[in-house]
Structures are given as structure tokens and as C-alpha cells.
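Input (Patatin):
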Amino acid sequence: MCLLTKTRFDVNMENEAVGGSSRVAMPPPNTGTLITILTIDGGGIRGIIPGVMLAYLESQLQELDGEDARIADYFDLIAGTSTGGLVTAMLAAPNEHKRPLYAAKDITPFYLQHSPKIFPQHGGPFAGLINLTKMINGPKYDGKYLHTLIKGLLGGTRLHDTLTAVVVPTFDIKTLQPVIFSSYEAKSRPDLDAELADICISTSAAPTFLPAHSFKNKDAQNNEREFNLIDGGVAANNPTLIAIGEVTKQVLLKHEDLFPIKPMDYDRFLVISLGTGNAKNEEKYNAKMAAKWGLLSWLTNNNSTPIIDAFNQASADMVDYHNFVVFKALHSDDKYLRIQDDTLTGNLASVDVSTKENLEGLVKVGEQLLEKPASKINLDKGVYEPIENGGTNKEALRRFAKVLSDERELRQSKASSRLV
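Output:
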């Protein structure tokens, strides 16, 4: 081999040769024609919606390549914010057999089981007052169950241990700077090679809902670096641009898995971006109303949190708009798929209403979204509109599954011949 360092593919080939993992990692992009990226938005319990999408995508990959196929076997990079960061870890963290911790079909049951304990609900006539009092005096939820769950799930697994590269954005409230945890940086930046549990707890620490998270990690000189982190949605609720930017950065740095791909060679990028749903634009707010709002009204109004909703939706939609325009301009729009539902109403639009009825409702939203037309954002109207000749989201995912399967087969063929 002419490479100076071993890739995940090389290590897995060696493991297979001595009776280890039965399914090798995705060979690197420099052995194929595409750079494959999966991204998952933040959105609390609405992580159920991309969970349904991922289960369908993985089922299509299994039809093509066998029942042991997993999402992480086909993507060079998986990026997730907040609840999307947790899903990213579930898909990419290794179990004791060096295979993904969770199959995609298990994500939705995970949310159905644990959401009521992460976000315990208060019933009765005073529920609203109780929640408001909590949010005035501190986060709405203490996060203890979530923290215990994540630490038990991920143990001491660190960023560099993931089966494919991952990117998870967070925001440091002390330095007022985004902190991007990237597998690509883990080797050269030991201070960023944190435990996945700490990363997931941090990226999901939504202001007013869950407490900020602090931890320390050591750099190359054994000096401790302290992190004071909150929800990655503050920096990027839709992490797609960060994911593309991270890959482009590594190309410029001549990463051995990516070089010699050209930095702006967007026709090499294949991106699936999964949203967690937006509230239907019912125009229930207007400037006249908002002009009178104080702090509390911006934090809680009509069963929603206007300030957080505005920031999250604005950033996510702008990222989608940018990506669609750029991929279209570079004649690569067939390699970019954004799946989002902007018709959520009532409790379905919340991030934390974890009643059995609402959680099951979100499952139905995901199932219905599969049958809806593939769409793109119209910023002028603030809604998603069907793409001409785009088919349904189910058809689009089936088409992308075939491309992913073909790309993996091509890489394996080239990589195997290289090792001979």
C-alpha cells in the first residue's frame, strides 16, 4: 500500500482476514466517484421523523446488499445536530462486534421508549404554569435520565472510534464560539477527541429545555481544555453546510482518503439531508403582536417558543436554499435530496410533548412524508414545493439507495484490486 496511514477500510480488511468483522467499512472516496454525506437536523422528539426515513433507506440498501447492510456502510460522513447528533451516534458508534450500535429500524422504537422519561409531562389544569415557572428558574427538564441513558449507551466510546466519519456541532457559551466535533480532526486535535456521550449530551442541551454541559479533555501536550457547551442548533440546526465544509477543508489539507478530489468538485458530492419537521406556517404571529412581546412571550407563546423556533427554522431553511441553488448551478441537483415536512400543527410541532398519542402521531407524519413529493424550499413563500419530476420521497430514497449501493460496490472492487 502506498498510503502513509491506514484507513478504516484497511483496518477492517485486516480484521476480516483474522476472523473479525464480517462486513468491511466503506472504502474511502479516493477509490470511487462520489463523496457520500448524510445529515440530520435537530428537533427533540421530532427525531422520530428522520428515524422513519432512515429505516426505509436502510431497508432498500438491505434489499440490494443483504440484511446485514447498515447506513454507516454507505456514507463517508454522517452529521447531526442535537437530536440528530444522537441519531448520528446510534448509526456510527460501534458495538462489541465492531458493527453499528443500532440498525435504522430501531431508532423510532428508541424514541418511543425513552422520550417520555427524557421529557416527563405534567398534566392537569396547572401544567402550563408549572412549565413556565420551571423555564423562568432554570431548564424545563433536568436532563438526568438523558445523561444516564447516553452514557450507558455509548460508554467510553470516543470520536475517533466511530465506524465512519461524523460531524456534530455544538456551541460554547463561555467563548461564544461554535465547537465542531469532527472525526477528521480527532487525530490531529486530541482535545476534540472527546467521548461521544459528552458530545451528544452537549449538542442536545437546548436552551430553556435542558441544562448546558461542561467537561474537560486533554490536548496533545496533556493540557486540559474545558468545554461549556449548549445545543448545536445555536450554530447549525441543519448541519449540511458544516458537513460539506468539513469535507472541503480536508480536501484542501490533502487528507489521504479524499485527495486528489478538487475542492469545488460538487458533482462528486451526494447528500441526503433529513429534517425533523417544521410548524405549518399558519401566520399566527405578526409584527404588531411581536412588537409587544417581552422576554417571557418570546420564550413561551401559544404552546411554542417563538425565539427558538425562529432561529432554528431560519438557519435550517437558509442552508437548504443555499445547497439547492449551488447543486443546481453545478448541474448536480440530482445528487442532493432534502426531505422536510413543514405542515406540522399543534403538539406535533413541539420538541418535547412526549405523550403516547403525540409520539405515535410523529411516526405517522414520517410514514406520510415518504409518500409526499420530493420538495425544495421556496423562501419567498416560506413553504416547501414539489420538485418537477422529482417523484415521491420514497422513490427518491430508493433511487439514492441504488446509487449508494453501486458506489460501494465500485469502491470495493477498486480497493480490493489495489490490495492484491
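The first strand starts at residue 35 and ends at 40.
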